[in-house]
Design goal:
Length: 355
């Protein structure tokens, strides 16, 4: 059986470098190399509302922004079905059945939820929809019989939760022939790309934490963000020895720098190890390292920015594509929903026929 790939993003803001290395790079690789059966990218607008209930406009506007980000990076809409979560009603019916297979305590133990609750500052006013979004995410994944989910590290607990739901469903309703198979995450190759830190060095780069370098940021903004990024607070003079651990600029170099960049932009060094050694010894200033990073990131982002300008000229056809794709996704999800209901014995039509 060929793989079915599904992944997605919340339309809470433009996509950033964390998305690029955490998930988009793998999506591009799979799109171009894997012999898959179906490939979906879901724009999770309903999930975004779980912590943005009073900010519908933001979520709505970012649907097109996120889609343009995908297309600018090279996601090919002829190969990948990009659709909008809220336009596939079956997902919410599936969620309802799954909610009965999960305990509140289990949701409260989810480490990503715990961290997000802290960042969002809900205190004692946690929206029930937010606490339960991992269940809705399980429905998104399972509605399409997904086998592979390319994601960053923060999504592993969600996939674990999804796998538990598959076991629970199969145990209760379908002990013999199974409705769902177990989806697997695909993480980036480099550890640092699983969870790219934000420019503040505090938490992961995230749209909601305001610490991101966006794929659509202009040249000047990118440079400004890099020049003010967190490094080593004890590295005050150029001659001071500097720390690599926790230093955001070196984290980004780990993620994006290749040996060829040294030849082009910093020929005094051969590779990143040499640069790190010099920094740790002392005698290498932050500004020089930051300007090198800026060269690398501008090289990556310039073509993405240019493609975006082209795409922005025909927004209508992008919306049409999204709505067409959502209809197709809905038909697929309907098949799964029917299989689920059959497995559960939730078939009232048969009852009516008997009477
Ligand atoms: P929000 O703050 O609204 O939750 P986000 O920036 O966390 O937004 P999501 O839409 O939640 O972005 O995440 C989409 C995908 O991108 C997920 O697969 C997630 O693992 C990945 N991702 C997000 N941030 C990072 C990051 N900093 N490093 C690596 N992967 C990331
Ligand atoms: Mg997130």
């Amino acid at each position: 059986m060929k793989d079915i790939v599904l992944t997605g993003d919340r339309p809470t803001g433009n996509l950033h470098l964390g998305h690029f290395v955490g998930s988009i790079a793998n999506r591009l690789k799979l799109q171009n190399e894997l012999d898959y059966d179906k490939f979906y990218i879901m724009i999770a607008d309903t999930q975004a509302l779980t912590d943005n209930a009073n900010n519908v406009e933001k979520v709505k506007n970012n649907i097109i922004q996120v889609t343009i980000d995908y297309l600018s990076c090279g996601i090919d809409p002829r190969k990948v079905n990009i659709f909008i979560q809220s336009q596939v009603p079956q997902l919410f019916e599936i969620t309802s059945y799954f909610l009965n297979l999960v305990t509140v305590a289990r949701l409260q133990r989810n480490p990503t939820i715990k961290e997000e609750l802290k960042v969002r500052g809900f205190n004692n006013a946690i929206p029930a929809g937010f606490l339960t979004y991992p269940v809705s995410q399980a429905a998104d994944i399972l509605a399409f019989q997904t086998t592979l989910v390319p994601v960053g590290e923060d999504q592993l607990p969600m996939i674990e939760q999804t796998r538990e739901i598959v076991h629970a469903f199969n145990n209760i309703y379908q002990p013999k022939s199974q409705v769902f198979s177990l989806p697997k995450p695909i993480l980036p190759e480099k550890k640092i790309c699983e969870r790219l830190p934000g420019v503040d060095g505090k938490v992961k780069m995230s749209k909601s934490a305001g610490n991101a370098i966006n794929l659509c940021d202009d040249e000047k903004t990118v440079k400004q963000k890099i020049m003010s990024a967190y490094t080593d607070p004890d590295h005050i003079r150029v001659s001071d020895p500097g720390k690599i651990q926790g230093n955001v600029v070196f984290a980004y170099l780990d993620a994006f720098c290749q040996d060829k960049h040294f030849k082009k932009y910093l020929p005094d060094y051969e590779n990143l190890d040499q640069l790190k050694q010099h920094y740790e010894k002392g005698g290498l200033g932050d500004v020089k390292v930051k300007l090198f990073l800026n060269d690398i990131l501008q090289e990556l982002l310039t073509p993405i920015r240019e493609k975006r300008l082209q795409l922005e000229k025909d927004i209508d056809s992008i919306y049409e594509m999204l709505f067409e794709n959502s209809k197709k996704a809905s038909l697929e999800a309907q098949k799964t929903l029917q299989q689920m209901k059959d497995a559960m014995g939730l078939n009232y039509k048969k009852l009516l026929e008997k009477h």
